[in-house]
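QUALITY CONTROL LOG
STEP: pairwise intake check
CHECKER ROLE: data steward
CRITERIA: each record must contain a sequence immediately followed by its structure tokens, with no blank fields

ENTRY 1 OF 2
RESULT FIELD BELOW
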Amino acid sequence: MQMTLDDWLSRLESQHPVAIDLGLDRVRAVADRLDLAERPLARRVIVVAGTNGKGSTVAMLERLARAHGHTTASYTSPHLIRYNERLCFDGVPASDEVLVTAFERVDAARLAGDPVSLTYFETGTLAALHAIAERAPDLAILEVGLGGRLDAVNVIDSDVAVITTIAHDHADFLGNDLEGIGREKAGILRQGRPAVLGSRSLPVSVSARIAELEVSDYWLGQAFERDDTPAGGWRWRGEDASGRPLVLDELPDPGLPLDNAAVALQSLALCGFELCPEATREAFATVSLAGRMQWLGQWCFDVAHNPHAATYVASRLAARSRPARRIGLLGVLDNKDAEALVMALAPAIDLWLPVGLAGPRGRSSENLAACVERAGGEIVRQAASPAAGVAGLMPLLTAEDEVLVCGSFFTVAEALGAVEAIRSGDRDAPDRQA
């Protein structure tokens, strides 16, 4: 009997000794058996690395390309609700059938000859790359999962490499040295291929790698820029690969970071795609990304899980009219700096509801509550899980309140499901999930 997608995912979770095993030797061996290096993945490939902003950059690249009439494939991680979200063709998540077929192909390749052990992420990445190569779209957009140099995505040579931002995160794998983190992120750069840098300031190690490889670099604030316009909206100024200046005016706010929107436009221009003002405006007016400043009534969901991302969320909330109360429903993994996260969000939050997260990296609500209190936050209550937090908070809310749910993909996914269930009338759902 053929395995289902759930069967495959359960198998992949246990087939390798550790969940994260950085290195490319095993991945490259299987990629060679799949002939991924022998055929073009797509007409153009963009690889996106960085600490924050990868997901929104990918979403805007994908939507812009489709608005201009190009076929697309995108690979991102992690997913929010369903694994299928990781691989999308023309904006639509891949079917179970496509993923199962790709997993079967990767498994056959890794067992051909000397068996190769792959992690969950490595198998998923190779399966996505194989499925994309089978379709050969106009544009493939690949998000780096962790780091860059040793990430499985880095077996692919891109036409344009993007580094969004560099900040502290995943210290257990990347360390706390920003120069070291920069070197890892810069591992996606390729000699003779342009790099788009989405921050006005990056570690010296990134510039050193650019110089070493003689890469053409396009920096935010130098080669391209975004500005507010007097009539509202914003303007992008950039250049194509030949240095010809490009300008797009009266662009709508996509509801995602404008720096990343500017990065997306510059990256597409370097791919040789002509940018049409009308198609660009339509793309920014309609782009969306689940779990990033996603509003559902008075509930806002954002997967921010480090201080850099939380500072952006706080700035977006500060731009809104202040509600009677804004409550932060927060769940944070044990390997994250919860106190720094709380302090970054504090200007926008009145009360806190710490929730626990299960699993090997989970943090209890009691531990998180102590972090909130050390950071000076006032706690309204706490709960054992995000769903239990939603269920307990609902009766306390008035129409004038707002709730920010953030701290982790796990927090947002569970709380979003609980809120949607209650709004749809299944009021017992949060209790069952808790």
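ENTRY 2 OF 2
RESULT FIELD BELOW
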Amino acid sequence: MATRRRVAVVGGGIAGLAAAVRLRDRGPADLDITVYEQSGALGGKLRTGELAGGPVEFGAESFLMRDPAGGESAAVALVRRLGLAGRIVHPTIGQAALAVDGGLRPIPGGTLVGVPGDLDKVSAVARPTPEADRDGGGPLLGPGDDVSVGALVRSRFGAEVVDRLVDPMLGGVYAGRADDLSLVTTMPALARAARAEHTLLGAVRAAQAAAPRAPGEPVFGTLDGGLSTLVDAAVAASGATIHRNAAVRELTPSATGWRLTVGPTRDAEHVDVDAVVLAVPARPAARLLADIAPETAEVVGGLDYASVALVTLALPEPALPDLSGFLVPATEGLLVKAATFFTTKWGHLRRPDGLALVRASVGRYGDEEQLQRPDEDLAATVHRELSAVLGAPLPAPVAGHVQRWGGALPQYTPGHLDRVIAARSALRAAHPTLRLAGAGYDGVGIPVCVRSGETAAEEIITALGGSGK
């Protein structure tokens, strides 16, 4: 009788769970799948909680509806696969603002993550320097080149466009600085266009034209009932055995595949499997790879992360603007870097009692000491700064919640994707039944993480000899 094949997925975030679903759908019919999650909760940064009697996201709040090429995003495809498409909802209000010069100004239209495609549209927020964006006789970016987003935009459009538009947009996603973040990793569509276009304005317009969006087509979606429903549905569809509070401390090759050492040192369990999807953050992955793939471990372990805190306040009938929220440039000197008016932005969350949920994101890369403040101090600072930006005192909150995400957001410096490709190639050559997946390698956001997990699963299926289905 043939022995059933076993795959371990180390990490129960959305990348790991997407890998488990793909393994179930396309892997061998007799495949045993086990997910090991170090914490007590699955879903990683997808976590729906409750505040003042209503649901609220304590982590990621939405997903992109389309991929960079203009097709359906991997997150939407997974939602459909899990039978949740009927629960997709979109923002009721999509207009956001920038907090600049002591007030709120609408984020200009026609930008690509803050990089203008029409310089006239951004003049109310920042003064571009169009004379610097000259045609130099060749593409902005060479075939294998990568630069920081800030360096490229600053050289072409000037400092104000970076500081007041691009930096807060990237900071809202990555908690990082535009001058440090890789163009190829964080803005792949613009990077592709920059390899052909001779001006930045031309590159932005080409990137926008490559993935046109119909008027009124929603950019973002979420699930009625919260994103934790996506997590629960993925667990059910995967048919995987789930182990929570199960830290994988060691990974060693065995005669037939891999041996995992799981749990505390004094009571460790040894588990033998045929293949492993390693879907944990880069540094824990590097520790597990240190002895078996030192070259890969060195590259993976060099990735840095930013920490953030999400402060949610339940406010009784506040006077909020008709906006989804606002972003704050670092030059404004505020602790808050972004705020979302949840019950304004998402119509399905509006409450008949007039209670409003407002969530602020706190923490930029390099400012982690600010996050050492007690919860009460963070909440009070957020309340004070929100009141200042809105120009009137907000009512005292009836409830609040502080969610800290330590080491949550990878910081992709220029050359990141080339380093990851090399690290994965070395790992694949040495260990064909071990794959890496997750935000640390491929980018942030639910669709990217889903695709990363699914790709790892497909490669494992191939390494095991195909689906057999």
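INTAKE CHECK: passed for both entries
DESCRIPTIVE NOTE, ENTRY 2: Residues 6-42+230-303+412-463 form a domain with the FAD/NAD(P)-binding domain fold (CATH 3.50.50.60).
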